Amino acid sequence: MAYKITFKNSVWRDLKRVDKKHAERILNKIERDLPEKAEDYPELTGKFAGLRKYRVGDYRIVYAVVDDTVLILRVRHRRDVYR
After folding, report:
1. Is residue 72 very low, low, confident or very high in pLDDT (cuts 50, 70, 90)?
2. What does the pLDDT read at residue 1?
3. What pairing do the DSSP bridges indicate for beta strands 69-77 and 4-7?
4. Does 58 reside within a domain?
5. Total structural domains in the chain?
6. In a domain, 82, yes or no
7. Are 14 and 75 in contact (CB under 8 A)?
8. Distance between CA 1 and CA 39 in Å, rounded?
9. pLDDT digits 0-9 by tens, 16-46
């Protein structure tokens, strides 16, 4: 199943904190992998239960699968993403 990718407005602020080279790589990986394989990546537990994570180098993308849409919620460095 092909999912539609949408971004929460705060994701663009997150990407501004990342250098351009990494931001471009992150966006390319999101567009390439998540439309087809969004259900394949691990689910989070605890207060983030129901969300999923996708790893791109030292960065984590936290997203939710809602019907036929992948909603990207957060893009941050792995040390800061769960705060």
Report:
1. very high
2. 80
3. parallel
4. yes
5. 1
6. no
7. yes
8. 10
9. 999 999 999 999 999 999 999 999 999 999 9
